[in-house]
């Protein structure tokens, strides 16, 4: 067999790149060996020739005996038959040694093949473990992605929970603060005598009025008598309301007595209307007792009838703006303004608000600081 044919029958060993296996003899070879490898049968002949050359070399060097020399030469005294038997036994021993050497080589080949089989099994096992590791890596990657998604969701809703919690805390804080302010206010009112029948002194510049949409009215239990009457008006003394317990200073004007707190505005209104040729007269302040008498004259029941049930409409005693000196029933040319087409009503409609006076719609003649 040629070297090429021998190399072609070799099979690559799985898991050991660069190594090949001879399925006939069981021998293994590396790629480095393939350049000089030959068929085992041809190698046997070459080995035999090399053995003969080695023996010749030993003969030339005087070392070792040749096969013929190892045979015993017959001596003159030996029996030829005995000599032949000895030589035959020598040949048999040589054959037995050769047989034993061949057996050891076969055992080595078998052992090598066994190791190669185990190496192939180990390779397959490593391959399986590698696949398992890849599967585990994929699982870890998938689970990691799921965990990351869960983290993002938790982070999102966690932020919303924090915002909601913060809003709740702000709301609770505002509620508690409101309750504290309420108690402080109540305590302050108790110290200031809120609801007490005694009156307090009015101080110019203080918030002495209670706003009611537009204009102003008076506070209960407050003394306004320290406010002087306006220039051009007449000081007519003071009045204390028996129910509301406020005290006012009354000032005489062309439209009757008014509270001193309102005297400047009324005086300026009268002056302005005179410049325009409008001469107003009328009535303003009425006491609590005067209001009761008017109610008795105008209402079915002076105590319980509504203002609109009276003719003309008349406020319940204690609630009239006239009792505060903050309302006026205007007259022109000696008569109350009964129509909205009168020149007095037209002038007031254009100018009265400049002096914080507003009309009570059902009555063209009735004007006050709140329009009530």
- Straight-line N-to-C gap: 136 Å
Structural domains: how many: 2
Radius of gyration: 68 Å
Ranges where pLDDT stays below 50 over 5 or more residues in a row are: 41-52, 54-78, 192-213
Mean pLDDT: 77
CATH class annotation of the largest domain = Alpha Beta
CATH topology heading of the largest domain? Muramoyl-pentapeptide Carboxypeptidase, domain 2
- Strand percentage lies at 5-15%
Q: Per the principal axes of the C-alpha atoms, what is the gross shape?
A: rod-shaped
> From the helix content, strand content and strand pairing, which structural class follows?
alpha+beta
Count of β-strands: 15
Helix content: 40-55%
> Helical segment tally?
8
Spell the H/E element sequence.
HEEEHHHHEEEEEEEHEHEEHEE
Largest sheet: 5 strands, antiparallel
CATH architecture of the largest domain: 2-Layer Sandwich
Tell me what the structure shows:
The protein is of the alpha+beta class and 372 residues long. It has two domains: 76-194; 200-368, Muramoyl-pentapeptide Carboxypeptidase, domain 2 (2-Layer Sandwich). The chain has eight helices and 15 strands. It has helices at residues 3-8, 31-34, 40-61, 67-70, 80-191, 260-275, 288-298, 343-351, and strands spanning 11-12, 19-21, 28-30, 200-201, 209-210, 217-218, 222-223, 234-240, 247-253, 256-259, 280-283, 327-332, 335-336, 358-360, 363-368. Strands 11, 12, 13, 14 and 15 form a five-stranded antiparallel beta sheet that branches. The chain has a three-stranded antiparallel beta sheet with strand order 1-2-3. It has a three-stranded antiparallel beta sheet with strand order 8-9-10, with helices on one face. Residues 41-52, 54-78 and 192-213 have low confidence and may be disordered.
